Amino acid sequence: MSELVTIKEHIERRTYIKGEFKGKFIGYLDPKKSDLLYENFYDIEVLSGQISTIKDSAHIRHWEEGEPEEYQPLEQFLTKLPDSLPIQIKIIDGSFKNYKINFNEPKLSAYKLTNQVHEKDRVLGDIEGQISGYIKHYDVQDIEVEVRTDIDGETILPPQTTKTKTSKQTNKSEIGGNYKRWEYFNSDGTTYWGNWIKQSKGDGFSLWSILLGIIQLIYFLVLLVPIFTIGWKLIFPLIIIGFLFYFLSAFQQVILRIWSWLIKFIGFAFLFFFAFGILSLFNSKVKTVSKKKYSSNSSEEIQHTKIDPLSGDSIISHFRIWHDYNEKEYSGNIEVKVSDLRNVTNFRNSITVMAQNPNQYNYIVSRIYDFDRNKLGLLYLMFDSLKEKHNLNETQFAEVITSCIQDIPYTLVLDDECNVRRYNDKFISDYLRKGGKCEGYIKFGLLSPTEFMGSLIGDCDTRTLLLFSVLNHYNYDVAMLGSELYRHSVIAINLPYYGISKTINGKKYVIWETTEKGIPPGLFPRELSDMRFWNVTLISNNNQSI
After folding, report:
1. What are the residue boundaries of the structural domains of the chain, listed by start?
2. CA distance 86 to 22
3. pTM (2 decimals)?
4. Which residues is 438 bridged to in the sheet?
5. What is the tens place of the pLDDT at every residue in 495-516?
C-alpha cells in the first residue's frame, strides 16, 4: 500500500512593472564596426539610473495579468542595467515610496540618448525612456506525493521542488484572431502558456521587390511579340537583359551594400583631395598671411598683458573659448592683476609647517583660500557677464563655470623637480614617463586660485581649490574633497544630479571630476568611488558644522 507525504513546492511568481527610466551611460567606441568617418558604433554601459512608476493596474501587474501588451513584441534590452535599481512608486494618495529592486529582462521603448559628450573613443550622456520588466518572488504550497523505496527497502522522500518557467517550447500554439501564444515547459516538466502576442499582417514584400516584379512582368510580355515576328536574333539580347534584372533581384542586398561602401569611398577620396588642395595653396609660391584674432582651439589661448586704467596695475589676460555639456559655446577673458599674483605667491611660499599630514594639508589649503578669496574680482566679472548674457539658471551657471575650468589642459604640479626617478607614486611615475606636462619646484605642490588663473597651470587640487572659491562666492553649497588613498582631489556640490555622491551632515553632495574635459557631475571612476576614503578639505558657508 503506497504512502503519501506532504512536501513544499515553490512556484515562481512575477510582478511586472512599467514606468519611466532615467540614467547615465558611457559608451566605448567599437573600432571593428565603425568606419571612423561616417558611422561610429559604441558599446553602451548604463552606469546608474532610477525607475519612476505609479501604483495602479496599468503600471504594476501580477502574474495572472502578464506583461503589458505593448511590451510583449519587444526584444529584451541588450545593454546590462545595474544589478540593483532604485524605484520610486507614486501611491494613489499622492505620497511616494522608494525601494531597490533586482529588475529582470528589462525592455526599453522610445528611449533616447541626450546630453552626449564625446571624448576620444568614449561618449558620455543621459539615457531615458519607457521601461518594462519584472521582479521575482515565490509562492510556497503543500502538495502530496507518493513515497518510494529503494532496493534496500529504505524510504526515499521526494525533494522539495522549485518550479520555474523556462523558454523551451512544446511545439504547441493557439491562435485567437490576430493574436497567437505558445506553450512552454516548466523546470519540473509541467507546461504553461505564454502571453498572447499580436501578429503582423505584413505580406513580406518590399517596395524594391514589387518594382522589380512589375519590370520583369512587362519585360516578359514584350518578349512574346518578337518571338512570333522577328525571331531569335532579337530575342537573345533581351534574354541577356532579363538575366541582368534577375541578378539584380536575387542579389539586391549585396549590391546595395557594395553601393553604400562605394559612396563612402568616393566621399573619403573627395575629402582627401580637398585637403591636399588646401595644403598645396600654402606650399605654392604665392602665400597668404592671415592674422589670427583669437583661438578656437580650447587647448590654446591668447595671452597678453594690459594696463588697468583705474589703478595703473598690470593685468594678465587669457582669452578662452569652451563648450558646456550641451555643446553650447562660451568665451571670455580670464584676468588677474599682476600685483595680486605676486602677493599670493609670496604668501604661499611664506607658509611653514613641520611635516605634511592630512590635517596640515587642510590647514595649508585653508590659509591659501582665506588669503586669495578676495583677489578674483576680474574672474567674477567675466562669469557675471556670461550669466546675464545667456540668462543661465542655477545648474546651467554651475556647469558653465566648471566646464570652463575642465577645458584648461591638465598640468601636474610638484614640489620637487619633474624627474620620474624622484617619485615612487605610480600615477606620477607613469605620467612623467609618458611625457605629461609638469611644473616643478612649487611649494606644497599646490597653486592658489590667482596663480592658476594667471598661468593656467593646475592639477587636481589646484583646480578644485579654484572651483571651490568661485562656486562658494556664488553661494553654491559646495565642498572640496581629498583622498590620501587615491591621491586625488575633487569638488562636490549639493545640486539635484544623479551619480556618485557623498553624504555630509545629512546632505547629498554629488562628485564632480575636474581634471578631464567634458565630464558631467556624478560620473566618477568606480575604482575611486568608495566615499569612505574621501575627507572634507573645505566646505561652503552653507554647511559649516563639519
Report:
1. 4-163, 207-250, 309-539
2. 11
3. 0.47
4. 412
5. 999 999 999 999 999 999 998 8
